[in-house]
């Protein structure tokens, strides 16, 4: 019979576990060759203490993935801010240069205006005819006037272009300024969100640590079980093969919150590390990974596919065939081979 201390430590997990189960998305039944999901009930050799510990750990893993997703979002907003800031600087430089050109060509146009009206001389061929002393004088003056007219038109055209360029640069600067401010505001909100999520995770980990103290030596041995020796898995392509091999090479490595290798991992840390060894960069959190690559139906799973669990997604593993996956389950556990869990929610192919 389970002792009262164990029940007191883990009783708070039951209500939350029921909520998680209520929102779980299950896949419609198909004529799939993939074996049925693992049963919800724990194996007969799993103690109540270990079962409840794993429930608490699953909740902590969800909080951890929420925390990682918020950090991913903050990185994206910081990238937006950096881009907007660079665009703003470039636009401001373009605006300054356009303003200089505008002032220069405006002075050039003003010179022609002064020559035409301030001095009283009309820049046209009739004026040249009336003021000339001979036909040759008229031709010479006409030629000079044509040059002056061309220069005047050129100056006007350049002035118009400089004005247009200055206006465009002004609009670009205003747009970059607005984007930069939006990114700053969103980053500030995300920073506060990250702090809140980190506190929730720390509180859950403290409760998990108390539950860990109630586990028996047999419970701890069950957590260290890797699910068997490394199997010979044949993936459909070289990148998927490299990722599968990399993940399987880490059987027995400890689960650590937020770890991404090479010796310790959390669930999405293992999958992102494995695909990095294959030369493919995927998002860091399981939730972001669940939107990456190409969706795959359950009856089309191939070794190397990412498989996801819970709704919203908070766990991920790498499919290795035969209805099994390699994954980093949760705190106190190790990287191991397991059947696909009952809370399966989808799969993505990235190679």
From TrEMBL:
It comes from the Bacteria. The keyword Ubl conjugation does not apply. Pfam families: NLPC_P60. The keyword Hydrolase applies. Residues 46-108, 159-211 form a coiled coil. Residues 1-31 form the signal peptide. GO terms for molecular function: cysteine-type peptidase activity. Gene3D superfamilies: 6.10.250.3150, endopeptidase domain like (from Nostoc punctiforme) (3.90.1720.10). Transmembrane segments: none annotated. GO terms for biological process: proteolysis. Keywords: Coiled coil, Hydrolase, Protease, Signal, Thiol protease. Residues 237-351 form the NlpC/P60 domain. PROSITE patterns: NLPC_P60. Belongs to the peptidase C40 family. This is Cell wall-associated hydrolase, NlpC family. It comes from Amycolatopsis arida.
């Amino acid at each position: 019979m389970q002792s009262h201390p164990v029940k007191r430590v883990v009783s708070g997990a039951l209500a939350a576990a029921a909520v998680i189960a209520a929102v779980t998305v299950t896949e419609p039944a198909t004529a799939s060759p993939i074996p049925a999901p693992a049963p919800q009930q724990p194996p007969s050799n799993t103690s109540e203490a270990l079962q409840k510990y794993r429930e608490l750990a699953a909740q902590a893993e969800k909080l951890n993935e929420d925390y990682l997703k918020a950090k991913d979002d903050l990185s994206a907003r910081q990238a937006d801010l950096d881009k907007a800031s660079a665009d703003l600087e470039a636009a401001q430089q373009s605006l300054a240069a356009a303003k200089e050109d505008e002032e220069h060509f405006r002075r050039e146009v003003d010179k022609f205006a002064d020559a035409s009206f301030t001095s009283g001389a009309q820049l046209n061929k009739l004026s040249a005819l009336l003021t000339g002393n001979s036909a040759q004088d008229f031709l010479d003056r006409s030629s000079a006037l044509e040059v002056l007219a061309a220069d005047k038109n050129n100056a006007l055209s350049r002035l118009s272009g400089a004005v247009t360029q200055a206006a465009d640069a002004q609009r670009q600067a205003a747009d970059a300024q607005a984007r930069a401010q939006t990114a700053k505001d969103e980053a500030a909100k995300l920073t506060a969100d990250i702090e809140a999520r980190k506190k929730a995770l720390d509180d859950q980990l403290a409760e998990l640590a108390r539950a860990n103290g109630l586990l028996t030596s047999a419970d701890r041995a069950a957590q260290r079980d890797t699910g068997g020796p490394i199997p010979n898995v044949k993936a459909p392509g070289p990148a998927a093969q490299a990722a599968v091999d990399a993940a399987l090479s880490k059987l027995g490595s400890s689960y650590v919150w937020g770890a991404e290798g090479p010796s310790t991992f959390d669930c999405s840390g293992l999958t992102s590390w494995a695909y990095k060894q294959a030369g493919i960069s995927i998002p860091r959190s399981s939730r972001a990974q669940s939107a990456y690559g190409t969706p795959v139906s359950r009856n089309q799973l191939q070794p190397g596919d990412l498989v996801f669990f819970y709704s919203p997604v908070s766990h991920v593993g790498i499919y290795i065939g035969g209805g099994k996956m390699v994954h980093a389950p949760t705190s106190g556990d190790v990287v191991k081979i397991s059947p696909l869990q009952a809370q399966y929610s989808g799969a993505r192919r990235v190679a």
